[in-house]
Design a protein that fits this description.
The chain is of the alpha+beta class. It is built from eleven helices and nine strands. 47% of the residues lie in helices and 17% in strands.
């Protein structure tokens, strides 16, 4: 979704730029096309992008606007907290996503120089979006939110985190949850290969479990064999509990499933090395190099 936020004064006549037509965005994903259409209709110089399943607390938009008004800031975003899962696969997905946020996104957002922008809720100056190439610069990228953050920061602007939003998990069946797991891993593998290579360290329960079994088979005492498993499981539970507590969600107890979710992610981790397609919002995309994608049947339609 897209909205524009007015400044204290209305923009001058003719200030909003003319948007490109949707057909001028070759290779754009369906999401980027919808965002592009929204940008074309927006009237004001501050643009807000957010996902349909996102709920923001009262006052957050005002805080983001104030953050965007700081000197040198070109983009402000809210950190995501997944909540509201009603099925076992949804609960596992929620626990793993929050554990990833607590392990990586939160520390980097707090202390990192380069911000890993997530698209749950993003505010950007219209002129900054134009400077980095507009929505055309995001066409063909699966991780369009991360790409926008990279372009904005590469242009000399700062991206700043501000507050939390709640992302609803809802009633996800196994197929949908596993597909989401795989899409996240595929996006990481092809958009930031180094991060993907290191991502196995972010779900270490499987490695600790292998260590424990190996030590047990060698006759090691109980504590040296299984203490690493308990330690990393506790760390993952604590990491997964941080986002819901900071976001004021009502289900921080889901964090206890993070070690089990890690095992699911560990099983799926090698898949992006072999899989070259991903289904997102009902559309299947073929993955190209550098994090770009194209609709799987796009070449057939052109013939």
């Amino acid at each position: 979704m897209v909205a524009s936020i007015p400044p204290e004064q209305q923009p001058a006549e003719g200030q909003p730029p003319t948007a490109q037509a949707a057909e001028d965005l070759p290779g754009a994903t369906d999401k980027v096309r919808r965002l592009h259409a929204g940008v074309g209709k927006a009237r004001y110089p501050v643009l807000a992008f957010w996902d349909a399943d996102v709920r923001a607390p009262a006052g957050l938009l005002a805080r983001l606007v104030r953050a965007l008004d700081r000197p040198g800031v070109g983009l402000a975003y809210a950190l995501p907290c997944w909540t509201g899962a009603q099925t076992l696969p949804g609960l596992l997905l929620q626990a793993w996503a929050n554990a990833q946020v607590g392990t990586f996104l939160l520390p980097i957002a707090s202390y990192g120089r380069r911000q890993p922008v997530t698209g749950a809720l993003v505010l950007v100056h219209r002129h900054v979006l134009q400077e980095v190439g507009g929505m055309a610069a995001l066409a063909g990228y699966l991780a369009d939110d991360a790409r926008l953050g990279e372009l904005v920061q590469a242009s000399g602007y700062r991206a700043v985190p501000c507050g939390w939003v709640r992302v609803g998990c809802g009633r996800r069946a196994w197929g949908e949850a596993l597909s989401t797991f795989l899409r996240w891993l595929l996006t990481l593998r092809h958009h930031t290969p180094r991060a993907y290579a290191l991502s196995y360290l972010t779900h270490p329960v499987a490695a600790a479990l292998v260590w424990g079994l190996a030590m047990h088979l060698q006759g090691a005492p109980l504590l040296p064999a299984w203490a690493p498993v308990l330690a990393v499981a506790l760390v993952r539970v604590l990491a997964a509990s941080l986002p819901p507590r900071l976001a004021g969600a009502s289900d921080p107890w889901v964090a206890v499933l993070a070690p089990v979710a890690d095992l699911v992610a560990a099983v799926l981790w090698p898949a992006p090395l072999l899989v070259r397609r991903v289904t997102w919002a009902g559309t299947t995309y073929r993955i190209l190099g550098g994090g770009r994608v194209t609709k799987r049947n796009a070449s057939r339609k052109r013939q």
